[in-house]
Amino acid sequence: MIGRIAGRIDYRASDHVLIDVRGVGYLVYCSERTLAALPGIGEHTALYTDLLVREDNLQLFGFTTLTEKEWHRLLMSINGVGAKASLAILGTLGPDGVGRAIALGDWNAVKAAKGIGPKTAQRVVMELKDKAPEVMAMGATPAPLHDSGAAEVVEPVTVPAQAAAPGNASAQAEALSALTNLGYAPGEAAGAVAQAAGEAPEADTGGLIRAALKLLAPKG
Fold it and tell me: Where in the cell is the protein located (predicted)?
């Protein structure tokens, strides 16, 4: 499995880039959002990757963070969501937006992606809602997009499993981490988690995240 790739961008297209790694060119498909974040032709970059193996084709997909890669893997597990649809969802919402939409049950946000109908969007939310907290708590560790080129490598990357610690205190800490990873200020995230925990003392991490997101959502 090719888990990470680093090299020089030789070519850019509307849905992929060609990355030269020590003389070997790798065609890597990316979402619009990821492509927009990449440097220009001739510059070095690095992406986490996922290899799709079919009988007649091998396709490599690239992501700037392990969180984005994990969402792609989960989205691809949903019936009716292929690689193209997954990249459309990630390109429209971004990995943080996907986690937020699923945690809140907002299938309309998922439906906003090109080619995603209401039934598919609802299926995504329903089937992944229990997995959203774990992925959101992973954080967003970006691949070094402007790699110096000194160490052009292709190496496997594994996503560490999230260990669930018992107790509401641990759930609050994990929920707070997930919310700050989504970009909320530590103060407002902590306040929302504390309020959610006060209203539901036995809530697990997922329940706290969903409740806190609702508290943090714009009113009106």
Answer: Cytoplasm
